[in-house]
Amino acid sequence: MKKVVVNGANGKMGKRVVDLILNKENTELVGVCDKKGIDKKIKSTNLKIKNNLSQILDKKEIDVVIDFTTPASVMDNIRIVLNNNINMIVGTTGITKDNLDEIKNIVDNTKIIIAPNFALGAVLMMKFSKKAAKYMDDVEIIELHHDQKIDSPSGTSIRTAELISENLEKSKNTKQNYIESLTGARGAQKEDINIHSVRLKGLVAHQEVIFGTEGQTLKIKHDSYDRSSFMPGVSMAIDKINEIKGLVYGLENILD
Length: 256
Ligand code: NAP
Prior knowledge:
By secondary structure, the chain is an alpha/beta fold. It is about 30% helix and about 25% strand. The chain has helices at about 10-25, 55-60, 75-85, 95-105, 120-135, 155-165, 230-240; strands spanning about 1-5, 25-35, 65, 85-90, 110-115, 140-145, 190, 195-200, 205-215, 215-225, 245-250. Strands 2-1-3-4-5-11 form a six-stranded parallel β-sheet, sandwiched between helices. Strand 3, helix 3 and strand 4 (about 85-90) form a beta-alpha-beta unit. NADP nicotinamide-adenine-dinucleotide phosphate binds near residues 11 and 34.
């Protein structure tokens, strides 16, 4: 039986993860933490939401902490959990290359899976995009999310740009120095790849990767219409966490 704590348990993703744990075989929800909804009881359990992660970790025997909080707090959460020698699964976005370097230094004998996107379809979109980059001249990314998403561009778009850049031959990029008559018109850049962020009510999480080469384009698109799309990936991470070594970044690295 894996004993699990959910951090960010009152959030949109955290609530789904709580339901997943309550319904998943061989897992037990032993703690819930959030900055909001303090003392709210979790249905069918005796657990109440607490707002101090360190105190929860002190008191219980815990196998894994799952974090869906905010980019501003995620690194502090990771430091707390790893310093307590507890394994961790992180879905919160906003983790930078410097953050990953720090995590590699503090991970020691614990294990941590960080995935900017737990939707299996999105992971495939990233894999296919990396592959397509070998054969195409240039690419831009459009990511679209609900209007409550705090950070932009999305962690998925940044990860996609990183993966594409491993295969994209930069010399093929024929873009000129454009003039932006409105700042931001060409989007933001990661690894010289333009990323455009859309935030709108009604959306969940969507991304289109558009490749261009002489006389043709290729579009690779993924849509999460519901947050349930992320749960099989989270479930897989729970199942595989004991098998990994140290830090794994990206769900693609634990797919069979
Ligand atoms: P959300 O609804 O705002 O939930 C986040 C919750 O965490 C809020 O209740 C927030 O409280 C709480 N929180 C903030 N700081 C905390 C801390 N230090 N300790 C404990 N709880 C804390 O956001 P969401 O839509 O669930 O998304 C959460 C994160 O997951 C975001 O970074 C999002 O981009 C990411 N995400 C990842 C995936 C993936 O597949 N990897 C999928 C969807 C979303 P306050 O409101 O008071 O700050």
